[in-house]
Design brief:
single chain, mainly beta, 34 strands, rod-shaped
Length: 443
């Protein structure tokens, strides 16, 4: 390898000569090689070979004249021609004497080195740019020279440097893009490249602001939008729309539902109030809470959603009042022979739209004589045929509702118990006057 090598050619000739003496011999002055004699001043002067010799230096080297010779150096070389401890303009050597030694410079340094601070130092061709390495080769300095090698990311193939496809070596966690002499890693959507340039880390899209209208939940490599209770996620998966809970199957309101933004509220009919979870309705007992309008002569009777005032029991002649709910007419009294012995008043409430048939009241006879029997019948108040009275045993009958009733309304049923004992020629009856209040209730 010749290109880039520093050649230092030193042409310095010193002639050793002898002075031949004889008594009758004339002495002729002579200068050393590289010097010429000046007759006018009778001394030796240095010859500038760089001017007198045609092409003294080859191979792009420059010629530098020196005492008694010349130097061939690279164009970047600097040579000091001063001699230590001498004057700035020394006299050339006199005839018949040795020329002074050259100054210590590149003369004494090998190729690929330079004189610096009194010593020969390696010349870094890579740093000075005095090399001929061309990409993709790079310069590597060596002692006294340099070498060209394939840059990182390339491999040697004969006399060429070929790119290495690092993507085939699995350096990247996600995606890899090969480049001339290198490569770059890419991450999938939802990830960012770590400082090491190879692995990926999840991006928390929920940090700061997000495009979720309500709640953002970060997931690995992505995120999800959620809505607050009472809202549903729109088809765009980012915005939220109000849910009309009143339109959902099985509305949680017992009576009436009113949709609100993000929620709903339940209301109850008059006479009811919200209870517990605020969805169900319970009846307001106006009688217990003393919010009725009954007089002192009346009794407050609570109903579903309302109440009614019941007048104090008055017994029609020939009946006399025996207790608060009972009127009696003994057989021994005039006019009572064909009348029921007693009339007892009762009140009850039923809610319309009940499942049918349904039992609603138990009727029992107090006359229990051995050898006697009882019979039961609906004496009045069942013109629409909504009720039946079914005898269960000798002393008990069950009142059942078999047709739908709509409220609010009030029905009065007279339920009669007939007691007979033939051995004693006993025949008697008693009447239960049942006031049935029909309420709509809460759907």
């Amino acid at each position: 390898m010749t290109t880039g090598v520093r050649l230092v050619s030193v042409l310095f000739t010193t002639s050793l000569f002898f002075l031949l003496s004889a008594q009758d011999l004339e002495v002729t002055p002579r200068c050393s090689d590289g010097y010429s004699w000046r007759e006018d001043k009778e001394d030796c002067v240095d010859i500038n070979e760089c001017e007198t010799i045609a092409e003294p230096c080859k191979g792009r080297l420059k010629c530098i004249n020196h005492f008694g010779g010349y130097l061939c150096l690279v164009y970047s070389a600097v040579v000091s021609t001063s001699v230590p401890n001498q004057e700035a303009h020394p006299m050339p050597p006199s005839p018949l004497t040795e020329p002074p030694p050259p100054a210590l410079a590149q003369l004494d340094c090998p190729m690929g080195s330079v004189f610096h601070n009194g010593a020969c130092m390696d010349l870094d061709e890579c740093a000075t740019g005095s090399h001929n390495c061309v990409a993709p080769r790079e310069c590597v300095n060596t002692l006294g020279s340099y070498m060209c090698r394939c840059s990182q990311g390339y491999r040697v193939f004969g006399s060429r440097c070929l790119d290495i496809d690092e993507c085939l070596l699995g350096h990247c966690q996600h995606g890899c893009v090969n480049q001339d002499g290198s490569f770059s890693c890419q991450c999938s959507q939802g990830f960012s490249l770590k400082p090491n340039g190879r692995t990926c880390q999840d991006i928390d899209e929920c940090e700061g602001s997000s495009d979720c209208e309500h709640v953002c939940v970060n997931t690995y490599g992505s995120y999800k939008c959620h809505c607050r209770p009472g809202y549903s996620l729109s088809p765009d998966r980012h915005t939220c729309t109000d849910v009309d809970e009143c339109l959902l199957p099985g509305s949680r309101c017992q009576f009436q539902c009113h949709n609100t933004e993000g929620s709903f509220r339940c209301t109850c009919p008059i006479g009811y109030q919200l209870h517990g979870n605020r969805h169900s309705c319970v009846d307001v007992d106006e009688c217990a809470e003393n919010v009725h309008n009954c007089t002192e002569e009346q009794t407050c009777f609570n109903l579903y959603g309302r109440h009614t005032c019941i007048d104090t029991l008055r017994c029609d002649d020939p009946y006399t009042k025996s207790s608060e709910d009972l009127c009696v007419c003994p057989n021994e009294l005039p006019g009572c022979a064909d009348m029921p012995y007693s009339i007892r008043r009762k009140h009850m409430e039923i809610v319309s739209r009940r499942r049918l048939p349904t039992d609603i009241f138990i009727l029992q006879s107090r006359a229990r004589y051995q050898g006697g029997y009882n019979s039961f019948r609906i004496r009045a108040g069942n013109a629409g045929g909504e009720f039946v009275l079914r005898q269960v045993n000798d002393y008990t009958a069950m009142l059942s509702l078999i047709r739908t009733l709509h409220g609010p309304q009030e029905l009065v049923l007279d339920l009669e118990v007939i007691s007979v004992h033939r051995a004693f020629h006993f025949h008697s009856s008693s009447l239960l006057r049942l006031h049935v209040f029909v309420s709509e209730g809460v759907r």
